[in-house]
Amino acid sequence: MIRVLVADDHPFVRAGVAELLKSAEGVELVGQCADGAEVVQVADALEPDVIVMDVDTPVQSGFEATRQLMSRHPDLRVIILSVSVVTGGGPAMAARAGAVGYILKGQPAHLLEAVRAVAAGGTAWPPTFTPPTNEAEPGR
């Protein structure tokens, strides 16, 4: 069973993602959060396998929350959700923060596939993006 936590400040988006995950075989929705600071605290308590994280969360960004999560839980798998691939260099910033995927909100069919892929140790990047290797990022 893949334990998933969802973080998005928009109630409709959060509810839609949650419903998709709840209906999926082999996936357990363990919680939902509305901001980046909350997700860090909730992840400490619920110990999810995968977090589906909005890029633009209140209190702190999804990127900052991902950095904090990865420093506390290095085996955690984070997928960033965004409305655009080009949001401030989104996929590259997600990779630098420690995320292993970047999915567009307008492509819900890819979300479940991405959750399963990252839970199995893979990644879920846009087809046009090649994440930097760890060797190219000193200090990571």
UniProtKB/TrEMBL annotation:
Residues 3-120 form the Response regulatory domain. GO terms for biological process: phosphorelay signal transduction system. CDD domains: REC_NarL-like. The keyword tRNA-binding does not apply. SUPFAM superfamilies: CheY-like. Keywords: Phosphoprotein. Gene3D superfamilies: 3.40.50.2300. It comes from the Bacteria. The keyword Phosphoprotein applies. The modification 4-aspartylphosphate is found at D54. InterPro entries: CheY-like_superfamily, EvgA-like, NreC/VraR/RcsB-like_REC, Sig_transdc_resp-reg_receiver. Signal peptide: none annotated. This is Response regulator receiver domain-containing protein.
